[in-house]
Amino acid sequence: MSHLSYLKFFGLLFSILLFSVATFNSLIDPFGKYQFIKMAGINSEKTQVEILGLRTIKAIGLLGADYQAVILGTSRANNAINPTHAAFQKIGATYNASLTGTNIYELEKVFDYILKHHRHLKEMVFSLDFLTFSSRRTINADFEQSMFSEHYSIWTKLSGTFSLDEMYYAIKTISDNVAKKRAAYHAILTEQGFANKQFPLPHHQLFINILRKNFFVNKNTYAGFCYSQDRLHRFQRMLEKSRQRGISVKLFISPVHAWQLEALRIMGLYPTFEQWKRDLVAILAKDAAQHPDKPIYPLWDFTGYNSITTETIPVKPTQQMQWYWESSHFKKEVGDLVLDKLFDYQALGRVIPDDFGILINRNNIEAHLQKLLQEQQQYHQTHPQDVMKIKTLAKQVMVKIPCP
């Protein structure tokens, strides 16, 4: 056999092997990129997908059904806003596309992805968080690798399919399925994106830790908050896209605990927080004026010092709180109340406190903000030890990073 013939033979052999690897990887589909076939006991549990990160998981999950409603937001919504809430049953299949540590830039890209893949989308519930409007919140490392990214291409999708690394994960997927192991992110993959995360006790220490280790020192939170007009513009653009597609939108400002608001105030951000609410109301007022024949996009404010957000923090390590895990993250029970309010839904045995949540607009925003300041002063009088504890903690660790 000639030298040329050997080259042709080995070239053909290499091509066959490469094609075989790609076929095997795409059929087992360890990362859920193709969704060609699901075989119980073989590849139905995508146990390796966690390697790629939450954003890849959520992007894959959005391809799992024809969703009529989506939930967008941060980890607060991801952990507490339940897509199987009874209010969604009349709408249709609902997916929680919220992301941890995200920002409006990412959420706009997620929304574009949803619009591309879900032609029958009818409803969006948007959980608005102050931090997502900070320019400090940049793109997460796993975002560009996910299908949410505008840089994601067919080559990005195919490149790993020909690799031995992916073949290893495919074999591991089969092994895990045979052993009847469940994916670590099973809830995210199979229950409409809802995490319903559980936090360890005790609550009192969690409250202190999240302020000490995150909000008082982290440039991506309060320590380096930089209010971004670009993020406001992107939010407005998301509303415009919703109008173009005839999608109903319900918006709410997340009900963080009073401790969180006190931390924000001590960091000098409360005036910016108020202006953010004014800006949201102004954007929605402009949208309503441009679409006088269409239903308004309502905005509910659940922040403040009400009977839910001022829940007492137990000192006993084993004592459970009813509504909160820590100052930033509320429980599903609060999320259910929020959805009850948004959809005017009355659940048997579940009562929404009268002071929890108010619909804000350009006609009542200033009176609402003034009322919150009065409630803030009342909280200082009724909870002096809590306020002092937060102030002391801030003095010990607080860092302020100037905006560029």
Based on the model shown, name its key terms.
single chain; globular; mainly alpha; 6% strand
At a glance:
The chain contains 14 helices and 6 strands. The chain is mainly α.
The 3D shape can be described as globular
Average of pLDDT = 89
Strand percentage, roughly? 5-15%
Structure classification: mainly alpha
Number of strands: 6
**Unreliable segments (pLDDT under 50, ≥5 consecutive)?**
none
Distance between the termini: 69 Å
Strand order of the largest sheet: 2-1-3-4-5-6
User: What characterizes the major β-sheet?
Assistant: 6 strands, mixed
The whole-angstrom Rg is: 24 Å
Order of helices and strands: HHEHEHEHHHHHEHHEHEHH
Total count of helical runs of at least 4 residues: 14
User: Fraction of residues in helices?
Assistant: 40-55%
